[in-house]
């Protein structure tokens, strides 16, 4: 410990020196863009070093060739020798054996040491020989178990010091193409996903220019994970739920599971695409007026312009391109008529030319002021005249009004409401729906529900922006969050089993490179879609090309509680085994019964008991939806959640109320599986009796 303390002191001294240097440099204002970029980089580095003061060093590797490496939250260079850093960043390739070396595959290492620190003080070391004398399943078992046994704070912490082998594999996996990570409850899927983001941003710094999107199941969940990435030094992250992803549109009402399932189906992508295509005008003779004269662009030409404008473009982008082509066609038509007039003039109709010239230059002040007439001496339009004429046509409000009348600007909200509220339109553009399903869709209120958000996103994308959307903002994350069509460098989806096909489409639009990490547990799926395998869940979005990884060890839930989950999983219809728990808490799960009238008082009493037992930590209550309101009123100071709301969260102790009430909910056994696996120490159940009967 004394030896490690010396090195930690040296690393902090070095960090303090670097911070002082950075402070001084940042105080000098930048003169130009390069200077600004340099200042920004220095400010980021300063932030990274400041945040690294917890866990500046957490590990050491002793190689067989006697090289010693220390691993920490960030890299710290030594004063003199750049090639021999004091600390290497946990994400650097050289740090990898810290997570993956085993006695069977020691990767040139003789020993791994976990160093526990509290601020600037070393508080413990755990050594793990890699020569085969201490083979175990876990990496740094002492440090890991200490971390897992700690009281919960309501905020997820970093796990860079104790990442396990199978987790490290996922963190550093190839990021080209989608990766789906299946893991049971508490296997560290969220931990892995967030550390992967930090790893990718470190390894591919260019990703920071596009940002990374983290999608979670609820705002409560996003709140729970907020501090992990900043603590790992990463800030180029936008976090959202599928409901909050589209700027300017939010969920205004609840909806039934049945309708949510119907509206979540992938068929809507095609339906909306057909509907949006139907809004494009059909080719006709296009009548335009210029300077009092009528011009007709023939149907044939209009059709050609339409075909090239619409290919691969959104409705509004195609409209703008079509408009540009019309400006050219009208310019040509005017020039053509001028030539005709010229020909007629040659036959002696000079007065006609004079009339035409007057017409063409009437409102051209520039031409008038420099004394030209808009035609050259022969009366023929020069290239310059044509360009000027084209520019005037492009800026002309009369031409714009004709085009707008023919190819009108469309409002996404209006169009979506129109389609969803009209059985005839639905019959035409979404023929896959049954009559009964169409009726249900049409019968929904106009306010947006959760399943409308991906439909809105899809249609808004098909219609496209009227003006190019270039949101300003100092920070990338603000710009990205404000722009619906922002393209991210990488997207992480947590609790990915819940996404509907339409929500997956929404994800794919934001990441055409398909650099996506989706983590989830198909056995915890509670959403209304009908997917029971990952192939079903992501097939529509990813096709056949995606990789899958598995996490098999449960770090959160103790052995005593995991023992209850096997039958629950079977009842949920899963063929999977629950993950293996790595630790026992020493507390057996217990059950008590209470009658309906005494429920609130008994819950308050038990929560008091649990809060005392797990003082300094957290206690949570999970109950059927119908009981939440009354229980929240009785227990205002603890989280009282449905199984769905508890997704991804954890506490030291859970009080589970009326488990049969949870299994009676749709996909209720999956819900109970979630509910049982939220605690790190103790699970208590309160069963409710109805009058003289036994508990349900
Ligand atoms: N390598 C690790 N080191 C320290 N703690 C870990 C590690 N892996 C997981 N944990 C802890 O285990 C708990 C569960 O992790 P996490 O929430 O990531 O699991 P999950 O698979 O997302 O669970 P669920 O599906 O139930 O939401 C968290 O407290 C997390 O900090």
What is the overall shape? globular
| Major sheet summary line | 6 strands, parallel
CATH class of the largest domain: Alpha Beta
State the assembly state of the protein chains: single chain
Q: For the residues shown, what is the average pLDDT?
A: 88
CATH topology call of the largest domain:
Rossmann fold
**Fraction of residues in β-strands:** 5-15%
Termini gap: 56 Å
Number of helices: 29
Secondary structure: elements and pairs:
Layout: H1 2-27, H2 33-51, E1 59-63, E2 68-72, E3 88-89, H3 96-100, E4 109-118, E5 121-129, H4 141-149, H5 165-171, E6 179-183, H6 189-203, E7 212-215, H7 219-225, H8 228-231, E8 237-240, H9 257-264, H10 267-278, E9 286-290, E10 293-297, H11 299-310, H12 315-346, H13 350-361, H14 365-369, H15 383-395, H16 397-406, H17 412-420, H18 423-429, H19 435-442, H20 452-463, H21 476-482, E11 490-493, H22 501-509, E12 516-520, H23 534-542, E13 547-551, E14 553-554, H24 559-562, H25 565-571, E15 580-581, E16 590-595, H26 599-613, E17 619-622, H27 625-634, E18 640-641, E19 651-657, H28 659-663, H29 668-676, E20 679-689
Parallel strand pairs: 2-3, 6-12, 6-13, 7-8, 7-11, 11-12, 14-15, 16-20, 17-18, 17-19, 19-20
Antiparallel strand pairs: 1-2, 1-4, 4-5, 9-10
The structure holds adenosine-5'-triphosphate.
The site of adenosine-5'-triphosphate has 23 residues, from helix 4 and helix 6.
